[in-house]
TrEMBL record:
Gene3D superfamilies (alphabetical): Aldehyde oxidase/xanthine dehydrogenase, a/b hammerhead, Aldehyde oxidase/xanthine dehydrogenase, molybdopterin binding domain
Keyword Iron-sulfur attached: yes
All copies of domain Aldehyde oxidase/xanthine dehydrogenase a/b hammerhead, residue ranges: 79-187
Species, as recorded: Hirtodrosophila pictiventris (Fruit fly)
Origin organism lineage: Eukaryota, Metazoa, Ecdysozoa, Arthropoda, Hexapoda
UniProt keyword annotations, A-Z: 2Fe-2S, FAD, Flavoprotein, Iron, Iron-sulfur, Metal-binding, Molybdenum, Oxidoreductase
GO MF annotation, one: iron ion binding
Statement: the UniProt record of this protein carries the keyword Transit peptide: no
Name assigned to this protein: Xanthine dehydrogenase
PANTHER family: XANTHINE DEHYDROGENASE
Family designation: Belongs to the xanthine dehydrogenase family.
Signal peptide from the UniProt entry: none
Amino acid sequence: RALVVSLFFKSYLAISRKLCDAGIMSPEAIPKEERSGGDTFHTPALQSAQLFERVYSEQSSHDPIGKPKVHVSALKQATGEAIYTDDIPCMDGELYLALVLSTKAHAKITKLDASEALAMDGVHAFFSAKDITEHENEVGPVFHDEYVFATGEVHCYGQVVGAIVADNQTLAQRAARLVHVEYEELSPVIVTIEQAIKHKSYFPDYPRYVTKGDVEQAFSEADHVYEGSCRMGGQEHFYLETHASVCVPRDSDELELFCSTQHPSEVQKLVAHVVSIPAHRIVCRAKRLGGGFGGKESRGIAVALPVALAAHRLRRPVRCMLDRDEDMLITGTRHPFLFKYKVGFTNEGLITACDIECYNNAGWSMDLSFSVLERAMFHFENCYRIPNVRVGGWVCKTNLPSNTAFRGFGGPQGMFAGEHIIRDVARVVGRDVLDVMQLNFYKTGDYTHYNQQLERFPIERCFDDCLKQSGYHAKCAEIANFNREHRWRKRGMALVPTKFGIAFGVMHLNQAGALVNIYGDGSVLLSHGGVEIGQGLNTKMIQCAARALGIPLELIHISETATDKVPNTSATAASVGSDLNGMAVLDACEKLNKRLEPIKKAMPTATWQEWINKAYFDRVSLSATGFHATPNIGYHPETNPNARTYNYFTNGVGVTAVEIDCLTGDHQVLSTDIVMDIGSSINPAIDIGQIEGAF
């Protein structure tokens, strides 16, 4: 109703302005500051500039590191020729699988009847919890607290109850709608964090605490103590390619899976568990993904496991790609968070203590929520030094699809709380928020509340560079002036610094492998444990191998990521893909260089192809595996106090100016300036693409 009135008033302003201009109405009829209320937003002509470190090398050198090389799949993706999972041509005898989903948030299944669906021509099978053992049905990325098919109870709307396999997609989906499910509703249905707190609906072993210093004493000595709270909702991943899987049964009980997943080894392991055959008979392959953002780290199993089970039982290829509405219903989102905090600070705005409670909405199963919560707890202070800290964390169990990894993995939610705290402090002491930020910034050598020393901490430089680059103070004056002159349109500007820890929160995941094969003609086939999600990982790995072997990029090719080339891989996640896999690629290349060294010494003027030819005839192995495990990490206050939690930190500062239409809530970003410190970039073009894309 408010919007209708606003739009009516907006049209009144627009028409009145035209009448004023035509001389029909008096120019004084509409006050000057109200006139712009009749405007709507139009996309401005975009202007942008990207600045990065320029790397020089000799003309003869093939070293591509640090240069803005084009993404190896860019042209294929731009023309639509790039092959994704569902673009694999249909195979002979292939069937399509459609999921039967729960229509209740919390209920007991009293009846499950697929007879009407199975009576349809072209429908081959229906699978549910009755078709596998209880042990086989229990799955999950870390804790096996989920089910391939719901057993007895459903815990969220959109939980997989069963799967129909038919000749084609249309038929399978129509048949899935005919599967008759009766429910007896259960209570309570818990959706929000507040409801979870009210019902004490938490996962076991929570809350957990991280403490540093003496919070209570610091509060008693503080000039001001302020209590507040903030919340952050979920967010849909909206990768362009939804979850997809194709499974082909091969000879001797082997299964070959083509899967849109960030974690092929996880899919391989859980398929082996569900169909009860060893992992060495299952190959999971991923050539490229149409985006992931964390949504395909663990949730791909909802599609891959029913597809693999159906292919294994029916001995025919089976395919499934979720429609967008199914994907959004089933797969969970970014974790919503609620923070309640109490902060102590001096009259100048120097923070001395913080006691904060972090609640995340995990959904109905654990998934990776424990790790997301830990990262939020480790990032809540953002770039600000707080000497006395108590952080409590609760993982809330609710009747929502299980929430999962999402770009930043709890870090952005934690930093969101830190930025609220710093603004509250600035408001209470009546100082400019930028001054309060600078007063509280960590310095090189400081320790975080999880006992990690900041060896190099360039936030001040990022901050100063960003202020200068954006013309911050001049823009602030322009904005104040604009807001005085316009009643219905307002402008604002915000600056946000960030500190993000680089490493998996779980120790054993910080490892990677690679396989480098050199063929007789001198061409190189590279395999590594990371998945190309569009982020340019393969391009960077080719650059690493080109530098290590001293050959042109054109001689190196990456075909796909597959569990039969590099086993036991970690998910491509946590911003460590190029760090881990790049080091593994270097390790493999160094082994090959050692073997080729005597030949290069004997033939110093020969070409790469001649060296390889000679090595082959001298019976030198031209294949090597590489491995890397991140050193000195895995901090634990009792068992490993000297290790670090994160390998290092990246820092950035962003300044954005926006304009809002107060009548409609419409908004427009006017300008953005970002300064990121990511060390020396392997490929500035790709890294800038990642920074802009993430923003």
